[in-house]
Design brief:
- This protein is an alpha/beta fold and 318 residues long.
- The strands form 4 sheets. It has a 6-stranded parallel sheet with strand order 3-2-1-4-5-6, sandwiched between helices. A 3-stranded antiparallel sheet has the order 7-10-11, covered by helices on one side. Strands 12-13-14 form a 3-stranded antiparallel sheet.
- It is 41% helix and 19% strand.
- Bound molecules: adenosine-5-diphosphoribose (APR).
- Adenosine-5-diphosphoribose binds next to helix 1 and helix 3.
Length: 318
């Protein structure tokens, strides 16, 4: 195929991303992991499913970044996931070390690629990827808002008993407890949510969205969500590879937009062949803007503490 997508981290999220990319025939897939045998085994398994699924994507598993050469997109899912009682921020030191080593290899072997970061804590990991790669900001982004909005959409659709396809939602800010779901910019068949639901029901759905990741960690106990995160990352990849010009909430490096400077925070962007092609401005109320700035402050604090994170190049201890 004329497109190549490298997926780093062949765990729950990475393997599911690889499966969805191949089944949507978005390009050939290279699955990379630090553990010998795992990416090879999962890639072979996916290859053997191809005749039944009816796609011709080549899926290669490897421990060698050379296979990522010429990749259009690199989706980074390497890192440790949360366990019950952990916040995304608790992953900071370990995952920052992993991110540094991974991105150095990506930048060496696929210098023209667009990076989509999935590893948590998301916004801080984007910062590491941006710094280590030296790529322009158009080519480094994080997957968070699409997932958070999908969770919000799923809860709204269930509450109102309507198709998920009728529901659009906007979630801004960091990918953590301070995220900012925007009911005013969330609609059901074009009708804004505040016209359809009582404020306390909206507040309950917003709260469930904020805790969406933790709710799943609490149920799984041994790891975190992966089906919806993989779907979200693949939607972003598809928008880029097919030059869809889709407007999606993504973590991007802001340089003054929304009054935020020098920080990765989730805002609506237009995704196309060049990556982040536009940062879409939304008119926010004072209250919404204050919530976004509060979320940005939490991201800034976490990102600033990265200076203390140690380099980490070996397999994780869990
Ligand atoms: N290089 C490449 N792969 C690595 C490295 C590294 N330096 N360190 C760890 N990995 C791999 C692991 O070997 C494992 O296969 O990353 C994979 C992570 O997979 P899981 O443990 O199944 O975690 P997953 O649920 O996929 O989550 C990965 O995405 O959603 C986020 O918070 C989540 O940060 C976590 C990441």
């Amino acid at each position: 195929m004329d497109r190549k997508i490298a997926v780093v981290g062949a765990g729950n999220v990475g393997a599911t991303v690889a499966q969805r990319l191949a089944e949507k025939t978005l390009g050939d897939v290279v699955l990379i992991d630090i553990i010998t045998g795992v990416p090879q085994g999962k890639a072979l398994d996916l290859t053997e499913a191809a005749p039944i699924e009816g796609h011709d994507a080549a899926i290669v598993g490897t421990n060698d970044y050379e296979a990522a050469a010429g990749a259009d997109i690199v989706i980074i899912t390497a890192g440790i996931p949360r366990k019950p009682g952990m916040s995304r921020d608790d992953l900071l030191t370990t995952n920052a070390g992993i991110m540094r080593s991974v991105v150095a290899e990506v930048a060496r072997h696929a210098p023209e690629a667009i990076i989509i970061v999935v590893s948590n804590p998301l916004d801080a990991m984007c910062h590491v990827a941006y710094e280590v790669s030296g790529f322009p900001r158009e080519r480094v982004m994080g997957m968070a808002g699409v997932l958070d909005a999908a969770r919000f959409r799923a809860f709204i659709a269930a509450e109102l008993r309507v198709s998920v396809e009728n529901v659009h939602a906007t979630v801004l800010g960091g990918h953590g407890d301070t995220m900012v779901p925007l009911p005013r910019y969330s609609t059901v068949a074009g009708v804004p949510l505040p016209e359809l639901l009582a404020p306390e029901r909206i507040a309950a759905l917003v709260e469930r969205t904020r805790n969406g990741g933790a709710e799943i960690v609490g149920l799984l106990k041994t790891g975190s969500a992966f089906y919806a995160p993989a779907s979200a990352a693949v939607e972003m990849a598809e928008a880029i590879l097919r030059d869809r010009k889709k407007i999606l909430p993504c973590a991007v490096y802001l340089q003054g937009e929304y009054g935020i400077d020098g920080l990765f925070v989730g805002v609506p962007v237009k995704l196309g062949r060049r990556g982040v092609e536009e940062i879409v401005p939304l008119r926010l109320t004072d209250e919404e803007l204050a919530a976004l700035h509060g979320s940005a402050a939490a991201v800034r604090e976490l990102t600033a503490s990265l200076g203390k994170a140690k380099a980490f190049a070996g397999p994780h201890p869990l």
